[in-house]
Structures are given as structure tokens and as C-alpha cells.
Specification:
268 residues; alpha/beta; 4-stranded antiparallel β-sheet
């Protein structure tokens, strides 16, 4: 279940990214990206198409291994900082990073609830034999999985749609279902890749409210987003990328006035 947390801002650095670089043959997609993520912050990564934002997300979540650089995670003050390099995606997920994707990835022929349960199983211990021949422990764990998954659906506003097929949801609800599935892993950091893409103004307003509620529950958020109204409204901190490099970093006020950012978005 979600744990209620004190809502004062933490000054603890949760994630440290140092000189992260990714090359594909002779192409450098991301070069020397460095930033720090404070606990309970909302950090937005912005930039024109092709800036390297999704490649950065793919390195943070283990889909790509960095060519150079470091990714360090420290979950709390008593926790020892650990590197995420070399870990597979499911191991990084277990370490506390969960994500959604730019292109929605759901199990369309499964129910809404079953989609969230898939995410929740990263926090269960049932093996193959316990699934094939359920024992008491496995049944209790499965009941807890259903309960936790329903809680996440209620949180994102989909509790009344738990038993319908995922592909019958509206586009905005499918986006929310992806977020519920990611939340089911009990993440420390939630990465959202263009969560507002394709949404109408009302859905975007609801999304802003949902992201703020996620932050209030103690989950730190990183998002890639092109909607500058949403970014400026919700972000504590912004990293701006262009041609694979960081060109600006700071508060929304600082980023809004930066000449390099204006040039990247509007052209010289």
C-alpha cells in the first residue's frame, strides 16, 4: 500500500547521473549528461525531437547500457549509494525505478486489473511451482497482489474499470493504466515518457493532478514532455537537451529565459 509521508521537501540526492554517454557505432546519441535528482522532486527532461531524451530514459532503466558515465541511486539517508550500471531492466525495476513508455505498451487482451497485477508481481516471491500448484502462501500473496493492484487502479481513477479489457479503454485511460502498472512496483522513482502525448486539455489537467498526488505519496518523478505549459506548471527542476547534450538546467523560471533554450525550440 502507499505509505503516507511527510510532505516537506527533502534535500537528499536520490539519483546522481554523471557524464552519461551512449554511442551507436559512429553516432553519439547522448553525450556527457550529468544531473542530480532530489527526493520528492518533479524533474522534467525537455528538448526537441531527436535530442536524446528517450535514450537517456533507456539508460536509466537498463534497456541500454551506457557507453560511459555513471548512474548512482541512494534511496534514503541510511542507504549506501549503489550503481545501476550492469543491471538488467527487471533488476533496476526491483531497485526502485519504474517507467511508462512514449508508445503505450499494454496487454490489450487482458483486463485492466490483470495489467496492473503484471507490474505488481515484481514484488512477489512466488516461483513457477507455486503458480502451477498453489499453496497457502502463494494464495495469500496472490490475494495481496489483487488488493494492491486494485488500490493503484483506484488511485489513478480506474477502479470502476478493473474487469474490462484493456483495449476497450479510451486513450487517456490507457495512459493512466500504464501509470498504475508502474506504481504497482512500489517505485522510488517513476519515469514518465511523454505522458500527456495525445491527451486533450481536460485529460492533461487530470494528469497534472495525478502527478502531484504521486509526488505527495513520496514518489519522485522524472518526465519527458513536449507540452511546455504542463512542464512549467508542474516541474521543480528542468534539464534541457539538444543534439544529445545538456544545454540548460534549472528552475522553470531560469529555463524559460535561457537564450539557448529559446534558440533550440524556436530556431536562430
Amino acid at each position: 500500500m502507499f505509505t503516507e509521508v511527510l510532505q516537506t521537501k527533502s534535500v537528499m540526492t536520490l539519483l546522481t547521473v554523471q557524464k552519461l554517454t551512449k554511442t551507436f557505432g559512429g553516432l553519439t546519441a547522448v553525450k556527457d549528461i550529468s544531473f542530480e535528482l532530489e527526493k520528492n522532486d518533479i524533474l522534467s527532461v525537455i528538448g526537441p525531437n531527436g535530442a536524446g531524451k528517450t535514450t537517456l530514459f533507456n539508460m536509466l532503466t537498463g534497456i541500454y547500457q551506457p557507453t560511459e558515465g555513471q548512474i548512482m541511486l541512494k534511496k534514503n539517508e541510511d542507504d549506501k549509494e549503489r550503481t545501476l550500471q550492469g543491471l538488467k531492466s527487471h533488476q533496476i525495476n526491483q531497485a526502485g525505478l519504474a517507467r511508462t513508455f512514449q508508445n503505450i505498451r499494454l496487454f490489450n487482451k487482458m483486463t485492466v486489473l490483470e495489467n496492473v497485477m503484471v507490474g505488481r508481481h515484481v514484488r512477489t516471491s512466488n516461483g513457477l511451482w507455486a503458480i502451477l500448484i498453489p499453496n497457502k502462501k502463494a494464495r495469500i500473496e496472490e490475494e495481496e497482489t489483487i488488493e494492491q493492484s486494485m488500490e493503484k487502479l483506484e488511485f489513478v481513477g480506474l477502479g470502476d474499470k478493473a474487469f474490462i479489457q484493456a483495449d476497450s479503454l479510451s486513450y487517456g485511460d490507457q495512459r493512466r493504466l500504464e501509470i498504475a502498472r508502474a506504481l504497482a512496483t512500489d517505485p522510488t522513482i517513476l519515469l514518465l515518457d511523454e505522458p500527456a502525448a495525445g491527451m486533450n486539455p481536460q485529460e492533461k489537467k487530470q494528469l497534472i493532478g495525478l502527478i502531484r498526488r504521486i509526488q505527495e505519496k513520496g514518489v519522485t518523478v522524472i518526465l519527458i514532455e513536449h507540452d511546455m505549459g504542463l512542464v512549467m506548471n508542474i516541474s521543480d527542476h528542468i534539464v534541457v537537451m539538444n543534439f544529445g547534450q545538456k544545454i540548460c538546467e534549472g528552475t522553470p523560471e531560469v529555463v524559460r529565459e535561457n537564450p539557448e533554450v529559446i534558440k533550440a525550440y524556436l530556431g536562430a
